[in-house]
Specification:
Number of helices: 11
CATH class of the largest domain: Alpha Beta
Radius of gyration: 20 Å
Strand content: 25-35%
Largest sheet: 7 strands, mixed
Structural class: alpha/beta
Helix content: 25-40%
CATH architecture of the largest domain: Alpha-Beta Complex
Length: about 375
């Protein structure tokens, strides 16, 4: 069957969480009146892709992962007015519907319909089997099709590489600090996990005017980059981490702690590194079977705030212009976060590096964009 699925492209397809992904030919669904078809120019390899590929997060298969991307519109639907062929765009993995209760409360990042299209086939494989877009975007491919509302135009003076990282890592990490937790100037901040999101959180703490920023990671090789991006201290992730963080924060603990890993263990660690009355923010995405326990007494006694963070509380149309300004004026250094590059067939190797705690962000350029 090819009716309604006419454009054929190369894509990296996940068929099993036990096997590597392979590049295959798929047919994208035709562009509807409100859709755009986008040629992927650069896409980041994110920890969420690792969680999907390993089965930590549920994903209907077969699927094309990838959600942090910048590309160029090659076709726009008849009802699309704000985008046209040739426009560079950032792709959004949460697309607010505009009419649910969360959207009505001005919380578009919590839209109940924002990720629904991830469960809808967006392509067919060579045998006619439906293929699903990982986290709604499916950017580990030469092209993808998304609603026009999921594409935000990029100004000419913002590089494609920087724009791609704004699709997830940077807006999540910076937004966790500046919007979700609302870090105040003069505060102390500890960030657990110095991957792409964690280093973005470090930069967000600097932007917020935090005077003590502590980076924590199992890989000491990340200390130098963390310092370059705004961390005043680096603490290895080991049995002495909590004690070291308390020593750097007047023995109280940090005003704000950000867990950019998302496991039960690191959530408890972030909680324990937070002072009484402080805020611990969970940014990383963990598995639903990974349970975190708190005693009733400690919740009362420490009077801490524990808050979850989805996509850095991003309102794309309102917030992205501010990120563009941060890049223009040198307040955000995104190029330093890119530690690798490759093509579609290199994604699995990038995921292995990420799982081992090495590297920050690999930017993949599909062959058709090279």
């Amino acid at each position: 069957m090819t009716d309604g699925f006419r454009v054929e492209v190369n894509a990296l397809v996940l068929r099993s969480t036990e096997k590597p992904m392979e590049v295959e030919r798929i047919r994208l669904r035709d562009v509807g009146p409100g859709d755009v078809r986008v040629r992927i120019e650069a896409t980041g390899v994110c920890h969420s892709d690792l969680s999907l590929a390993r089965g930590v997060l549920a994903q209907q298969l077969p699927a094309v992962l990838g959600h942090e991307a910048c590309g160029t519109v090659v076709e726009a639907g008849s009802d699309v007015e704000n985008l046209r062929e040739g426009d560079r765009v950032i792709l959004l993995w949460i697309t607010p519907c505009g009419h649910c209760a969360s959207c009505a409360r001005d919380e578009p990042h919590l839209c109940v319909n924002g990720s629904a299209r991830g469960a809808e086939p967006y392509a067919l494989d060579s045998s006619g089997e439906p293929v699903y877009p990982g986290l709604t975007v499916g950017s580990f491919a030469e092209q993808t099709v998304v609603p026009a509302a999921a594409a935000v135009k990029v100004p000419d003076d913002i590089s494609t590489a920087d724009a791609a990282l704004l699709g997830c890592a940077v807006t999540t990490g910076v937004g966790a600090v500046t919007k979700t937790a609302a870090v105040t100037a003069g505060s102390s901040v500890v960030v657990l996990g110095l991957g792409g999101v964690g280093l973005a959180a470090v930069q967000g703490a600097r932007l917020a005017g935090a005077t003590t920023v502590i980076g924590v990671d199992r890989n000491p090789d990340k200390a130098e980059l963390a310092a370059q991006l705004g961390a005043h201290h680096f603490v290895p992730a080991d049995d002495n981490t909590r004690k070291a963080v308390r020593a750097l924060t007047g023995k109280e603990g940090a005003d704000f702690a950000f867990d950019c890993v998302g496991s039960a263990r690191t959530i408890r660690e972030a909680w324990g590194m937070t002072r009484r009355g402080g805020t611990a923010c969970v940014v990383g995405i963990g598995g639903k079977e990974d349970q975190v326990a708190f005693s009733a007494l400690e919740l009362f006694h420490f009077a801490r705030t524990l808050v979850g963070c989805v996509a850095g509380s991003l309102d794309a149309n309102r917030d992205l212009p501010r990120y563009f300004d941060h890049i223009r004026e040198g307040r955000l250094d995104l190029a330093a976060m890119v530690t690798g590059s490759g093509k579609l067939s290199d994604v699995d190797a990038a995921l292995e590096e990420m799982a081992a705690g090495r590297g920050i962000r690999t930017l993949v350029v599909p062959e058709s964009a090279q």
